[in-house]
User: Which sequence fits this backbone?
C-alpha cells in the first residue's frame, strides 16, 4: 500500500494513497464531524450551562453531559450557580487562621460622628445566570463596592453604642437589605445569602478608654456587691442581737415572777405560823436574825438610850462613821 | 481550468456571504456605519447582515452595566468641614449612536462622567451639613446626584444608573479630634459608673446602718416592755400576799434588811434600855 507523507507542523502523518484518491470528501467529513464534536460539553453538579445562539441567549442546560452547536453558531458559559461566594470587608484572611486588618475599609463614621472599626463578611450567589453573565461587568467588585457603601450608610444611621452592642443584628439586617436593593437596581442577578458583622469594636486609638468604661462598670458592680456584703453581714447579726435581748427580757420576766411567787410562798407559810402564836414567833424570828448577824459585829452599848425601839438599831452615829 | 475558476468563484462567493454576516452578543450593541455615516443601531442580540467593509462597518459597544470607581476627593460640606468622599458610578450606554457621535469610547466617556459626577456631587454636598451627609440623608443626596448626573449625561447617550458614596471619611487632623472627643466621652461614662457605684454602695451601707439601729431599738423597746410586765406582775404578787398582814411583812422585811445591811464593818450601838440589849443581857 502506498502512503503519502503529509507534514503537519513538526509531525509527519502517513496517509494512504487510496484515501487521497477518494478526493477531499473524507477529509471534509472528518473535519466536519470533528467540528461538530466540539459542541459536547459537561455541566458540573454546581453549574448550569447558559447557551447563546448567534450571540443571543437561548437556553439553560442542566448538569450532566450536554451538547451545543459548535462555534460560531452557539457558545456556552457554565457559571457555578449553587456556589456561595464570599467577600471580606475590613480584613483579608491569609489562610491558617491568620488575617490582616484593612483599616481603610473597616474604619467608619457613626451617626453621632464617632468612629468604629467594623469587619464584615458578605456571602452571595448567582440568582439569575443570564443577568449575572450578560448585564453587569466585574460582579465581585460590584458586590464589594455596594457592600461597603451599604455598611457605611447603615452604620451612619446608628450611633456608636448601638453599633458596638445591641444594634449589631439590626445593622446586619439593614445592610443586607440595602445591599440586595442596590444589586437588584443594577440587575446583577445576584442573591445576597448572608451579611455577617464579624467584629465591631472601637478604633485602636481609643480602645483603652472603652475598656476603662467596661472596667468602671465592673467597679460599680463590685462596690455594690461589697456594700451588699456589708449589709448581709450586719443585718442578720443585728437581728440576732435583737432576738437575744428580747429573750433575755423574757427570761428576766419569768425569773422576776417566779421569785416573787417564791418569796410570797415563803411569806405565806411564815404568816401561817405567825398567826398561830404571834408574839412567840415574832420574838423567835427576831432572835434568830440577831444570832446570825451579831457575832461578827462590833458593838457599842450606850447606857440609857432611847425608848428601846428595835428599829433604833439603825440609828448609827453619823459622826463616828466607819472606823 | 474552467473547473478551477468555478471553484474560485464559489469560494469567493462564500467568503463574501460570510463577511456580510455578523453576530451581536448579549453583552453588545452595534452601530452600523456606511462610509462612516451611521445608518443603523442594533441593540438586540442575534445574527445580523451588513455589507462587508469598507462599505459598511460595525462599531461595537458594551451593553452591560459599566463601572467607574471615582478616586477619593476632598469636598467641603455646608458647615465648611472637609470630607474625603470616595464614590463610584454605575452607568450604561443607552444610545450607542449618540455615544459614538459625542464620546466615541468608554475611556473618554469616563473622563466626561468624572467631570459631571464630581461637579454635581460637590454642588450637592455643599448644600448639606456634615452630619446630614454622614447620617440619614446620604440616600437622598446620592439619589439627587444620580438624577442630576443622569440628566447631564443624556446627550452623551449614557444613563447614570447609580452614583454611590462608598466612603465618607474625615481628614486625619479631624479624625484626631474625633478620637479625643470619643476618649473624653468614655472617660465621662467611666467616671459616671464609678460614682454611681459609690453612690449605690453608700446608700446600701447607710440603709444597713439605719436598719441595724432600728432593729436593735425595736428589740430594746420590746425587751423593756417585757421587763416591765415582769416587774408589774411581781409587784402584784407581792402586794396581794403582803397586804394580808402588812405589820408582819414589815417585821420580816426589816429582819431581812438587817441581814443585808449589817456586816463586819458595822458598829452596833445598843442603848442599854433597848430590847435587844435586854435580850442579850438576860
Assistant:
Amino acid at each position: 500500500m502506498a502512503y503519502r507523507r503529509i507534514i503537519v507542523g513538526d509531525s509527519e502523518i502517513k496517509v494512504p494513497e487510496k484515501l487521497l484518491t477518494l478526493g477531499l470528501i473524507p477529509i471534509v467529513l472528518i473535519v466536519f464531524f470533528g467540528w461538530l464534536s466540539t459542541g459536547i460539553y459537561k455541566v458540573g453538579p454546581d453549574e448550569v450551562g447558559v447557551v447563546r445562539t448567534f450571540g443571543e441567549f437561548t437556553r439553560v442546560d442542566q448538569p450532566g453531559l450536554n451538547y451545543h452547536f459548535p462555534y460560531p453558531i452557539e457558545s456556552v458559559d457554565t457559571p457555578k450557580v449553587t456556589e456561595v461566594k464570599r467577600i471580606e470587608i475590613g480584613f483579608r484572611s491569609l489562610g491558617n487562621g491568620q488575617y490582616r486588618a484593612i483599616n481603610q475599609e473597616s474604619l467608619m463614621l457613626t451617626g453621632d460622628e464617632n468612629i468604629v472599626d467594623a469587619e464584615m463578611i458578605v456571602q452571595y450567589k448567582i440568582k439569575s445566570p443570564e443577568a449575572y453573565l450578560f448585564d453587569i461587568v466585574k460582579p465581585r467588585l460590584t458586590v464589594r463596592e455596594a457592600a461597603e457603601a451599604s455598611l457605611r450608610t447603615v452604620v451612619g444611621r446608628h450611633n456608636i453604642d448601638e453599633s458596638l452592642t445591641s444594634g449589631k443584628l439590626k445593622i446586619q439586617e439593614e445592610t443586607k437589605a440595602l445591599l440586595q436593593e442596590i444589586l437588584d437596581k443594577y440587575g446583577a442577578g445576584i442573591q445576597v445569602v448572608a451579611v455577617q458583622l464579624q467584629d465591631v469594636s472601637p478604633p485602636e486609638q481609643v480602645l483603652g478608654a472603652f475598656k476603662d468604661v467596661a472596667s468602671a462598670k465592673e467597679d460599680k458592680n463590685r462596690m455594690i456587691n461589697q456594700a451588699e456584703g456589708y449589709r448581709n453581714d450586719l443585718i442578720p447579726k443585728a437581728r440576732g442581737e435583737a432576738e437575744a435581748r428580747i429573750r433575755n427580757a423574757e427570761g428576766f420576766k419569768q425569773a422576776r415572777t417566779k421569785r416573787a411567787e417564791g418569796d410570797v410562798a415563803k411569806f405565806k407559810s411564815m404568816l401561817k405560823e405567825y398567826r398561830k402564836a404571834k408574839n412567840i414567833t415574832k420574838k423567835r424570828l427576831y432572835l434568830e436574825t440577831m444570832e446570825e448577824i451579831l457575832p461578827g459585829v462590833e458593838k457599842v452599848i450606850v447606857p440609857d438610850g432611847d425608848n428601846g425601839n428595835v428599829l433604833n438599831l439603825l440609828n448609827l452615829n453619823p459622826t463616828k462613821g466607819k472606823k | 481550468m474552467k473547473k478551477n475558476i468555478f471553484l474560485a468563484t464559489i469560494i469567493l462567493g462564500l467568503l463574501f456571504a460570510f463577511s456580510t454576516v455578523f453576530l451581536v452578543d448579549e453583552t453588545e450593541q452595534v452601530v452600523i456605519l456606511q462610509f462612516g455615516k451611521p445608518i443603523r443601531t442594533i441593540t438586540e442580540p442575534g445574527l445580523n447582515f451588513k455589507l462587508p467593509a469598507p462599505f459598511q462597518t460595525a462599531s461595537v459597544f458594551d451593553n452591560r452595566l459599566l463601572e467607574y470607581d471615582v478616586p477619593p476627593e476632598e469636598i467641603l460640606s455646608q458647615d465648611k468641614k472637609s470630607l474625603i468622599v470616595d464614590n463610584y458610578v454605575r452607568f450604561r450606554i443607552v444610545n450607542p449612536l449618540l455615544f459614538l457621535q459625542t464620546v466615541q469610547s468608554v475611556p473618554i466617556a469616563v473622563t466626561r462622567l468624572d467631570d459631571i459626577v464630581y461637579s454635581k456631587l460637590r454642588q450637592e454636598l455643599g448644600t448639606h451639613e456634615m452630619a446630614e451627609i454622614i447620617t440619614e440623608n446620604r440616600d437622598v443626596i446620592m439619589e439627587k446626584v444620580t438624577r442630576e448626573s443622569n440628566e447631564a449625561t443624556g446627550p452623551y447617550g449614557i444613563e447614570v444608573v447609580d452614583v454611590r458614596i462608598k466612603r465618607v471619611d474625615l481628614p486625619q487632623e479631624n479624625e484626631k479630634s474625633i478620637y479625643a472627643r470619643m476618649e473624653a466621652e468614655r472617660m465621662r461614662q467611666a467616671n459616671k459608673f464609678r460614682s454611681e457605684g459609690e453612690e449605690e454602695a453608700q446608700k446600701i451601707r447607710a440603709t444597713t446602718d439605719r436598719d441595724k439601729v432600728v432593729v436593735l431599738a425595736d428589740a430594746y423597746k420590746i425587751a423593756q416592755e417585757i421587763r416591765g410586765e415582769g416587774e408589774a406582775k411581781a409587784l402584784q404578787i407581792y402586794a396581794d400576799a403582803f397586804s394580808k398582814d402588812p405589820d408582819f411583812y414589815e417585821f420580816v422585811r426589816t429582819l431581812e434588811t438587817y441581814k443585808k445591811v449589817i456586816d463586819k464593818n458595822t458598829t452596833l450601838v445598843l442603848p442599854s434600855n433597848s430590847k435587844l440589849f435586854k435580850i442579850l443581857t438576860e
Remarks:
- The mean pLDDT of chain B is 87.
- The two ends of chain B are 198 Å apart (CA to CA).
- Chain B has eight helices and ten strands.
